[in-house]
Amino acid sequence: MTPHHPLPDRQSVQRALEKVIDPELRRPITELGMLKGFSIDDGGAVTVEVLLTIAGCPLRDTITGDVEKSLAALPGISAVSVVLDVMTQEQRTALKERLKGPGAERGIPFNDPSSLTRVYAVASGKGGVGKSSVTVNLACAMAAQGLRVGIIDADVYGFSIPGLMGITGAPTRVDEMILPPVAYGVKTISIGMFVSGNQPVAWRGPMLHRALEQFLTDVYFGDLDALFLDLPPGTGDIAISVSQLLPESRILVVTTPQSAAADVAERAGSIAVQTGQQIAGVIENMSWLELEDGSRVEVFGAGGGQVVAERLSSTLDKDIKLLGSVPLDPRLREGGDRGEPIVLAGGPAGSSPAAKALRSIAAELATRPRGLAGRPLGVSPA
Ligand SMILES: Nc1ncnc2c1ncn2[C@@H]1O[C@H](COP(=O)(O)OP(=O)(O)OP(=O)(O)O)[C@@H](O)[C@H]1O
Fold first, then answer.
1. Is 163 annotated as a binding residue?
2. Would you say the CB of residue 286 lies under 6 angstroms from ligand 1?
3. Is 249 flagged in the annotation as binding?
4. Does residue 234 line the site of ligand 1, with CB under 6 A?
5. pTM (global) more than 0.80
6. Which positions fall inside the MIP18 family-like domain (predicted)?
């Protein structure tokens, strides 16, 4: 600092701190009651006191760094020190009320009649068709378009979402409220985050139902434009649970072009007949492999996605679209293995036909009318 520089005024420090966003709650720390106070001494050194939601908050370093960064740009500041403290129980209760509304019922916020969140349950007839990869890429593509997006990984048998999203951190708990880790702007929660190591989860229907219910009630997602649920493959109990817990959710069916895969995918989609859910559409994955000379090899045959869309259209007597076909691309798998979704990649991977297909499906889903639109309002003329 030059000796002539005037001291920073409180107002500009306050304004800079209003730009610090809590990494989990995604709101300014000033709105969350996390800024306890700050002082500026005669030499221009600023001390900021921040209240963490819980002791040992895994993101304490991130918050400290963000506070320092936000003030670094202000002229006249010679030093910044951040003092961390922890909220009292009253402060935590106040925070929860601010987030959920005072005395909010513990219900599923996505079922609130005023909710504008589109909920997509991603289903497949069998495992390994790329359901989780499709889920992650659609969610990240939507977030990159500026939408607020969440993922619930309910695939207990193969919870792969954290790996695909590059998430290693655990959710933070504020009493009974669970704050999901955020990656690429997507709030993500997985059953895998609640079991140790790589253990398989040997849960049966009722436990799965309870786990899903807890995710839907206790995880703080805030206002979302879209929520994706990665379901276990098949037509099991969880599909029924989803329809009971989230009757407004729409099913996205993922299949490969193979006729056997199409048959089971159709079965997964037909569940909608029993549950009364709507089907958002069909996505065909691993549609073909493009060789260097530009020719295509149809590794898993052809036409499965279209067949599923047509059969579901006739079973449900609705127009169910094939939303897109995603080719096989080793870079999609490599990105997944690294936790870097291909739709966010730069260079040739990012402009590959697979990335483009996924981005265009995401764009199509993003423009669908959501929430109240098209829903009966339950009013009748007097
Ligand atoms: N279009 C694609 N091109 C290349 N590899 C792909 C493609 N789609 C998925 N994969 C790869 O196939 C494997 C299975 O994909 P993924 O885990 O997404 O499937 P899944 O249907 O969710 O499986 P499960 O339900 O058994 O967990 C992964 O290694 C993934 O990287």
1. no
2. yes
3. no
4. no
5. yes
6. 10-82
